[in-house]
Design goal:
Structural class: alpha/beta
Largest sheet: 6 strands, mixed
Radius of gyration: 27 Å
Number of helices: 17
Distance between the termini: 115 Å
CATH superfamily of the domain at 79-239 and 471-485: ATPase, nucleotide binding domain
CATH topology of the domain at 79-239 and 471-485: Nucleotidyltransferase, domain 5
CATH architecture of the domain at 79-239 and 471-485: 2-Layer Sandwich
Shape: elongated
């Protein structure tokens, strides 16, 4: 009996060992499959220096093509009609209106010239009722003008309009516009939930001006700009060496100062300044040198604008978290990363936002507690192992650093076009004004971008290239551009 019992125990132990071995083998295969997805992502996302130089060269080539003719490039290279940027000498009271979504902001700023700079500024934010976003053009602009009139009425004694002058306004309008002068432009199409057919093809400055007249408000729109150009203006006001502005937030764009005689498609008289600000619309850049993965191709194919904004889909805050979600979904499908069943929330597009990704990527706790909390709170995934959390951080690292390196290559392309990428005796500073939550808050992204740009430019050139955070370009920048293009400037000369 005793022998039989011992044999039974031994047999059971052998079965247990075999089951454990099989489980370990299954587990090893599972991790092997997950690792294969990660290695494949890493390989296809690779952005080594040689490839980044090709991207920068392609950006510079596309810039030349876009300046030569309308539609000659994937880049818009839009002539902004901003031919003078703030000098710091501006004086007086100026207003700004920033319309770029479901809220708009009104701002006033008292400028005190070279000594006083920005003496005082005030701002108010107003929400647009949903029905006005799909109503009539007159209703929308009357609502905006009424809010502006109310804001002007609250002007305190600290603000002084010079005697005999009309109030002047800079209008930041962050929708696609075909501009025909510094203070006129027709709407190409609405985005961001607006849909008012009668405004399409209309001059948005004329629409606003008519509404201001109906309010009895004596105010002239002297500059129509987008947020990137506002950032450039705000940057130049603070630092005379600013030559370009880049926005890296939900979306991305760049603007820079070009020599007017280097724009073949410009047919008017050359401006006195000799300069012209170009709105690049660089989010639409594409090149065979961009490292695209299956995840990028699927995201693009399923987007509202397939084949468009390829660069933006690789580097901006709108898309980075979504790319990570798609990678994690594949790992779950092929390697049961989060268990045998696919978590339902992991299938929802754009549920994992870039701020969530940033929090996980920056987690320095020994047990990656924040990663575990985000997987649970955002994706409903509980009880993850430390090994799983490390894998998630690895995915974030690959996606974020590729985006940052490609953004640096774009900036290098702009510097190349301006001839500021080569060593020389002229050690003049080159400053890029940077705005956007992705750059400001995602530290690993911004540090990678800056390190990559240094790596590409080399020590000598990079020592004179500075990236400066420039907040609120779309607000104060518009007011500064109203001042720089004031109707009273000729009288002062």
């Amino acid at each position: 009996m005793r022998k039989a019992a011992v044999a039974a125990v031994a047999a059971a132990a052998a079965v247990g060992v075999a089951l454990l071995a099989r489980r370990q083998m299954r587990e090893a295969k599972r991790w092997g499959r997950a690792d294969a997805v990660l290695r494949g992502l890493e390989e296809r996302s690779a952005a080594p220096p040689a490839r980044l130089r090709q991207v920068a060269d392609a950006m510079a080539v596309e810039m030349h093509a876009g300046l030569a003719s309308e539609g000659g490039s994937k880049l818009g290279m839009i002539i902004s009609y901003v031919d003078s940027l703030p000098s710091g000498q501006e004086k007086g009271l100026f207003y700004a209106l920033d319309l770029g979504g479901t809220n708009f902001r009104v701002l006033r700023v008292q400028l005190g010239g070279k000594e006083g700079r920005v003496v005082k500024q005030e701002c108010d934010e107003i929400s647009i009722p949903a029905h006005l976003m799909t109503g009539t053009s007159q209703e929308l602009f009357d609502f905006i003008a009424a809010a502006l009139a109310k804001f002007v009425a609250s002007e305190g004694e600290d603000f002084h309009l010079l005697e005999g002058r009309q109030r002047e306004l800079g209008f930041t309008f962050s929708f696609p516009v075909k501009q025909s002068s510094i203070a006129s432009g027709t709407l190409i199409k609405w985005t961001k939930g607006f849909s008012i057919d009668e405004t399409v093809g209309a001059d948005v400055v004329a629409e606003l001006s008519s509404a201001l007249d109906r309010q009895g408000l004596d105010m002239k729109v002297t500059a129509l700009v987008n947020d990137t150009i506002g950032t450039l203006a705000g940057g130049r006001y603070d630092d005379n060496d600013v030559v370009a502005a880049v926005i890296l937030g939900t979306g991305t764009n760049a603007a820079y100062v070009e020599r007017a005689n280097a724009i073949p498609k410009w047919h008017g008289l050359l401006p006195k300044s000799g300069d012209m600000v170009i709105n690049m619309e660089w989010g639409n850049f594409r090149s065979s040198h961009l490292p695209l993965t299956e995840f990028d191709q699927a995201l693009d194919a399923e987007s509202l604008n397939p084949g468009e904004q390829i660069y933006e889909k690789l580097i901006s805050g709108m898309y980075l978290g979504e790319i990570v979600r798609r990678v994690l979904l594949k790992m779950t499908e092929e390697a049961s990363l989060f268990g045998d069943d696919i978590p339902p929330k992991l299938k929802i597009p754009f549920i994992l936002r870039t701020p969530h990704m940033s929090m996980m990527h920056h987690d320095t706790s020994p047990d990656l507690r924040t990663v575990g909390a985000k997987l649970k709170d955002v994706l409903g995934i509980q009880g993850t192992s430390l090994k799983t959390r490390r894998l998630v951080v690895d995915v974030c690292d690959i996606v974020a650093k590729r985006g940052a390196r490609l953004a640096a290559a774009g900036i290098h392309g702009v510097l190349k076009k301006l001839g500021r990428d080569i060593p020389g005796s002229d050690k003049h500073r080159t400053v890029i004004a940077m705005d956007g939550g992705l750059y400001e808050h995602y530290t690993i992204f911004s540090e990678t971008l800056e390190n990559t740009l240094r790596e590409m430019l080399g020590e000598e050139v990079s020592s004179s290239v500075v990236i400066k955070l420039a907040n609120d370009g779309s607000g104060i920048g518009a007011a500064l551009l109203a001042a720089a293009h004031s109707q009273y400037l000729e009288a002062e000369v």
